[in-house]
Design brief:
Mean pLDDT: 93
Structural class: alpha/beta
Radius of gyration: 22 Å
Shape: globular
Distance between the termini: 35 Å
Low-confidence stretches: 1-9
Number of helices: 15
Strand order of the largest sheet: 4-12-11-10-9-5-8
Number of strands: 16
Length: about 425
């Protein structure tokens, strides 16, 4: 793989970081990139990524999980190149958007109608707007530790309310309107009794209940046995729109996402990341009676770049690959995930069992947790997050890249050699940490 080491020298990333800081706030175009090592990337292929200093990393960030097929999948790139020869952004209809919507309705159990957009944050907002329009209610309930985008009305920090089993929603950034959070309630996840108690009291006010069906943004935590079934039942009982944010889990846990894997069908589903395999495309899919509120002009959704030709081509190619039984992408993801999970557990055992490891198909998390199982936001935050940050930093120094919250995304391109490299690095790092 070609690198720019000979051209830039070993200090190239530092030089570019200084240059970036002069023209970009913080030197990065997402605040989630402000923390941690500043590397500038020049090329990628499969599960490997190379910086300007010529350092090659085994990458488990994968565009925060978007690059499910690995970097630069040739067939997908060829489809995109072909599509852009004819159309780029026509601001009008084309066959490809019908074909993509048809494929999503074929794969995703909740998808009766589909609206295509660009980002998960955007499609979350559309889902909330639909729920409010359909129910005539205003309150949205979400769960602590679940992330649904950075916009004011859903980007909330939490303060535990003693004895009430829920959290106070607080702003997380300067400039965020506190009034935007007035209709937001935050509850503990994986606790059906607390949810039942809350809905008994305030169910008639609640338009939507939104959650990650597997909590991938905080610790990769699976739902407790029977939890999602009970949530579905309570939403039906109280006339609440159940929204699954499957931006991470969609097409990753199974071709039909977490809902297909777990057998629970929400009313609306937000899709992204793996949908475009690295290209910026997202979708809201769901019940026809809800989705028709958009088509009837009752609920507004627009966007210049919605259903542009390049992203449609990427999404079509991605879903064809992910759903092809002969390619068995999810079998590979399952096998590689298991290999990484078991390997990290063994490494942890060799170093005193301090590294806690858990995951589901295609996504793993490592923390330094207390003996109690990590089952929700509070138990995750009882882990040693400073030690986790140190582990991530040292793994980066060993040229193994994982996300800043300790999440490892697995792609179809990861090999046994990549996993072995990661495990060898984890051994070195735990030794360096004195674990």
């Amino acid at each position: 793989m070609k690198t720019s080491r000979d051209l830039q020298g070993d200090q190239a990333s530092r030089a570019l970081a200084a240059r970036a800081a002069a023209v970009i706030p913080g030197g990065a175009n997402s605040n989630f990139r402000l923390a941690g090592p500043r590397r500038f990337w020049v090329s990628s292929d499969g599960a490997r990524i190379v910086d300007v200093d010529g350092n090659e990393c085994v990458d488990f960030v994968l565009g925060m999980g978007a690059a499910i097929l690995g970097y630069s999948p040739r067939e997908l790139l060829e489809r995109v190149a072909e599509a852009q020869q004819d159309l780029q952004c026509p601001a009008g209809q084309q066959l490809a958007e019908i074909e993509l919507a048809e494929k999503i309705t074929e794969l995703v159990p909740s998808a009766e109608l589909v609206r295509i957009g660009c980002t998960g944050s955007e499609m979350v907002q559309l889902g909330l707007r639909l729920a409010r329009a359909a129910t005539g209610r205003s309150v949205v309930a979400k769960f602590a530790g679940h992330y649904h985008g950075w916009l004011d009305n859903i980007f909330a920090g939490t303060v535990a309310l003693p004895g009430r089993g829920q959290f106070d929603a607080v702003t997380q950034t300067a400039g965020q309107s506190s009034k935007a959070l007035e209709d937001l309630v935050i509850l503990p996840w994986n606790n059906i009794e607390m949810l039942r108690e809350f809905l008994t009291e305030r169910g008639p006010e609640v338009a939507a209940l939104i959650m990650e069906p597997v909590l991938c943004n905080t610790g990769v935590i699976a739902p407790a046995d029977g939890y999602l079934e009970a949530v579905r039942s309570l939403c039906d009982e109280h006339g609440i729109v159940l929204i699954f944010d499957e931006v991470i889990t969609g097409f990753r846990l199974a071709p039909g996402g977490a809902q297909a894997r777990l057998g629970i069908v929400p009313d609306l589903t937000v899709l992204g990341k793996a949908l475009g395999a690295g290209f910026p495309v997202a979708a809201l899919a769901g019940r026809a009676d809800l989705m028709k509120l958009i088509g009837d002009g009752i609920v507004m959704h627009g966007g210049t770049y919605n259903a542009n030709a390049m992203c449609l081509a990427a999404a079509q190619a991605a879903l064809e690959t992910l759903s092809d039984p002969e390619r068995a992408v999810h079998v590979r993801l399952e096998d590689t995930t298991e290999l990484l999970l078991r390997g990290l557990e063994q490494v942890s055992d060799e170093h005193g069992g301090k590294l806690s490891v858990q995951g589901v198909t295609g996504v793993v998390n490592t923390t330094f947790a207390p003996p109690t199982p990590v089952t929700d936001y509070l138990t995750y935050h009882a882990s040693d997050l400073d030690k986790q940050s140190k582990f991530i930093q040292l793994m980066d120094e060993e040229n193994v890249r994982i996300t800043s919250r300790g999440t490892w995304f697995i792609s179809a391109a990861h090999t046994e050699t990549d996993v072995d490299t990661a495990l060898a690095a984890a051994k070195i790092v735990l030794c360096r940490m004195g674990q």
